[in-house]
Every structure is written in C-alpha cells, then in structure tokens.
Amino acid sequence: MAKVIFGVWDGNVIDNRRRRIFDIEEHPGFRSFDEFNPGNPIKAFLGGHGFFIFEKGVNLLDAALQYMARVARESCGKCTPCRVGTQIIKSKLEGLTNGNRNPQLLDEIEAIAEHVRDTSLCGLGQTSTVALLEMLEYFREELLKEIAAEREPQQHCTTYVSSPCIEACPSKVDVPRYIDYVKDGKFTHSLGVILQKYPMAATCGRVCVRFCEMACRRTQVDEAVGIKVLKRFVADHERFVSNEWFSSSLIHEKKSDDLKVAVVGTGPAGISAAYHLLLRGYRVDVYEANTVPGGMAATGIPNYRLPKDILRQEVGIIETLGGRIFYGKRLGRHFTLKNLAAEGYPAIFLGLGAHGGKTLEIDGEDLSLKGYEFGVNLLLHINHDYIDNGIPMDLGERMVVVGGGNVAMDCVRSALRMGVKEVHLVYRRSRREMPADHEEIEAAEKEGVIFHLLTHPRRIIVENGRVKGVELIKMKLGELDESGRKSVVPDEGSEFTLETDYLVPAIGQQVDLSFATPDDGVALTKKGLIAVDSNTLMTNRKGIFAGGDCVTGPATLVQAMAQGHKAARCIDDYLTYGRVQFFPEDRMSRLVADTQPLIRKGVSIPIKNEYRVKIKELDPEVRKKMFEEVEKPISVEEAYHEAARCMRCYRVYSVITEQ
After folding, report:
1. Tell me, what DSSP letter sits at residue 540?
2. First to last CA, the chain
3. pLDDT digits (tens, 9 = 90+) for 507-522
4. What pLDDT is attached to residue 240?
5. d(CA 380, CA 374)
6. How far is the C-alpha of 323 from the C-alpha of 312, rounded, in Å?
7. Which of 52, 202, 449, 517 could bridge across to 412 with cysteines, CB 3.0–4.6 Å?
8. Which residue, of 555, 581, 607, is where some domain finishes?
9. Is 0.85 surpassed by the pTM of this model?
C-alpha cells in the first residue's frame, strides 16, 4: 500500500502535506501504488479526474508538462479548444521549464485550461486539464517556487491513453479510434484498428458478449453505443478475403527456422496466438483435434448467430500468413508434449477449449441414457453432423434444457430449428440472474421457448434406457450467498413432472486434460485447469505456455483471444530474450482499474438523447424454422448515426517514477 501525501480526485481531497511522512498511514485504496515495477517506486499519478502525490520531491511543473504533451499529441483536432488550447498550454509549460520565469504565465495557463475543459467536444478535451487545474488550485506556491528555481532534469514518466470501453475489453481494442474512422468514412482504417488485436473481427462482431458496451459512459445518458454492431459493420463492409488483406509482406522480419512454435487448438485462443506469432515472423504449426477449425466457436455457436463461412474465412488468415494447420491431431492420442519437444519446438502454446459438459447430479442420471445429451455435445452434433455433413438427427417432439447461459439459449433455439415442437428451458434462479445475453433470452422467448424460472430438476424419469421425463421442483429465493446473489432453496411440495424425449444439461463446461500424463509434467490447479504464471502464461515446464479456457475455465471468445495475444507476446520475449519482459501498458491498465472506485458517476456535460440503431432481424416465426443468420447488417447511414453517438471518452494517465 502507498502513503498519499496529497490527492484530489473528482473533487475529493486527501491532504497530508503538514504531516511527517512516517506519521502518514498507508491508504487501503492504493494497494497497488507502491511500486510501478520491482524496485521502482511510484511518486505521482495523474489522470483525467485529478492527481495523487505519494513521495515528496515531485516536480509538479515537469509532471504537468509531460502529461499535457501527451494530451496535445492525442487531440483529434476536430474542435478548436482541444486542438489549439492544449498546444498553447504545452508551449507555455515548456517555456516555464526552460527558463521563462514569468509567474503570470500560470494565470494564462489557468484561463486556457478552464476554456479547454468547459468547451471541448469530447471526453479527452473535457478531462485533459483537470489535473493541471487542481495543481494550480492546491499547489500554486510550489509551482511558483519551481518556476524561480534552476531547471531540474526531466523526471521518469510513463503516459497511457485509454477509455472505459478499452479497459473493459479483454483484448484492449481501441474502440473510440475504430469508431472515429467509421465517422470519417474510413472503414478500411477502422477494420485495421481491430485487426491489430485479433484476426476474428467479423466473428467477434457477431458473438462478442460486449464488455465494452457494459462500460460505455453513454449508458448514463440513454443507451450504450452499438460497439459490436459497428465492428461487424466494418468487417462485413470490407468483405475482406484473407488473400486481399493478409500476405507474408505483413511480416517485417522473419525469424530463423529453428524458432518455430507449436500451437495446440484452433479455438479463439490458439488462432489469436498463432496470428500474432506469425506477424512477429515465427514459423507456426497448429494442431487441431477436430476436422474443422474454430474450437467452440465452430462447434458450439449455431449458424443463425455465426455463419461458418465467416469463421472459416477468418481462421484461413493463419494459413495465408504461412502457418500450417494439421487436423485430426488430438493431444494425448496422436501426439504428446514430449513428441513436440522432440520435433524441435522451443515453445508450445496450449489453447485447449472447454468441450466437456457437467452433470446435473440428480437421481436417474446416466450418461448412457438415450435422449440425454450435454448441451455442448448437442450443439456439436447439430453444427458438425447435421449442418456440415447432412447426417439426419431425431430429437423427438419435446425437449427440456437445463441452464441459463448462452449455451442453454443456443440449445433451445437450435432445437426449434431442428423441428422439436415443444422446447422447455429450466433455470434455478430468476430471469434477472440468468447469465445469458438478454438479447438471446428475448429471442428465445419470441421464438416460442417455454421458460420455467426458479425451477430445478430433481429426478430423471427413465423407461427402457430412454429419457421419458424429468421431475422438477419450484425454488424460492433465500439469503445472499458468498457470490453476492440470493441463494435458492427448494419449495417443498411444489414438485411437478414434464414429459420429454430429450434432456439437455447446459449448466457449465469442463476442459478435458486427460492428455496431462506424468511424463508431460504440466502442473494442474485444484480446479483441474492448467497452472500458469499469471504474468507470463508459462506453465511449470519451461517453454510451455497455456491460455484460454484450459487456464481460466469456460470464458468468452474475446477473453480467449486476449489470452492468445498475451501468450504470443510472452513467447516472443521468451524466444528473444530468454525471459518475459515487464509490460508498462499492462501495469498502467491495472493502476487505472484501481482508481475506478474513486470516480464519481454521471456525465457532467449536456448530451442530446440519441438512441442506438435498431438491428433488423428475421421474423421469429420464419427464422425458427431455419439456420439462416437472424441479425441483419446495418446500412452505411445507420453506421454513421451510431458512430456519431460515441462521446470519445479518452482519458490520459501518467505516472512519475523514480527510475
């Protein structure tokens, strides 16, 4: 924990300037602010809401100059106050640090800073001078002394530019930048921003769970900006074929042939890792257990949400960049980690998905029962056997799916499209607590799925080895549990039975780590996942890295891609330097996250209500009979409208460190 000598953030002041440093208590709100990296203390932190000083001797004039220099560099230039004002402030601060001892410049700087704050048109300008103005209010005497003193050497400073939506995105996609390019009609540039982080832009534009939109400050006015919709728009508008966008010319420096990397799995984590390694010049071989690429994105997401030709096209980028994909190669059956090491791979990345289901743990449950199928397996058979290979399937006339997540929603909606006449969804908690996207829940209801909320299965009714029904019981809400949600308890006497031809548990997924033999020596966690160093994603075995579901447990596509990107970066360091380097941007992101509880909510400037574009969909009565994509693309005009809703909530942050 750090000691705060002085701090002001959103108007809240901490002032310990008159206390001796050893008398100041460590502040529990600043647990991660003691060191930037090992042996390098944080002396001050500046941001769009204020600043904090943790050590005496900070040169505030220099800190303000370095901060405002980054602000001036980041200004988009579309409004005069930010474009011109920040440059003038920077110039005047430079003059003061370079020998101009005119104290009246502080008054001029203050007037311009207030004008920039009050009249800029986006979040960057509106917050860019807050820290400076607070310094002028609380430290004017110290600033005057610094002006009169001899010039000191420039302090060590790290600057960082982000926004709430960027910080919420696991892949840290620069959302406001790609939206800016949409505003300007530069759709190719917009897509390029996304492709810097991952190759699956069109895929993510369809199935991303939108952490960014949950963090969007526009929700404090009306509705979140349609960030996912705009991502799909630019990917679809460009209609990029991998050969048009990608070639070996993108690889600036080829690594030597002995620096090759094996990637296990073509799910989002594996594809992302392979993509970034290829762009860094490495030879990459990808091993996939199935006959089709994409992992759970291919086998678990129905066509009506993600057409498989889109996914295949984006996975094809790997081969276009020179990577090789070997299908039908299952780790632990067709090869081992020992085999890969013997074939000369100095680094291996394990990107294994969570393809196994979880049992209900109720009476009568037997995996061999006819009519009993895990949700992930059901989707696999529908997507691979039925849709891809035309193998007929008989799911009966009635189905009961247990669960409340996106997999459960995919199962019930797919069942209707497979001709099941009556589909029931059973979930033990209330609708409000269902983890599935609310759009998916609403779509399922519109298509005719029958919901049984606060309901739990107790027993499977079996006849001649086949599921015939399920006994259910109503639940009622109890006290808050450890997760912060209300517990649910059975409402005894409320039992009832549903007849069904198929029972589908969709209550969670598991990673199959049966490949991990003692010979491999890869350590596992108590939860049965691969144990890695959280900073490097390296396992206990040197040169073997892992990421995605096999490390985090079942997660989202964008989280898996972020893990793949991080792994590629760490593998590159490992093969280049023999160790993984310190990443200042990751450290800055953590510091930004730790300041979030201090931020006052609410948008302080007047914003006109402009509700988000409504996505056109196929009629529920039509779409539930086929697997054609439900959501339709937006028009160019709608994209312009939606992009214009972005408030461009960039914030500049900086830390002053000892070294």
Report:
1. S
2. 19
3. 999 988 888 777 788 9
4. 54
5. 10
6. 15
7. 449
8. 581
9. yes
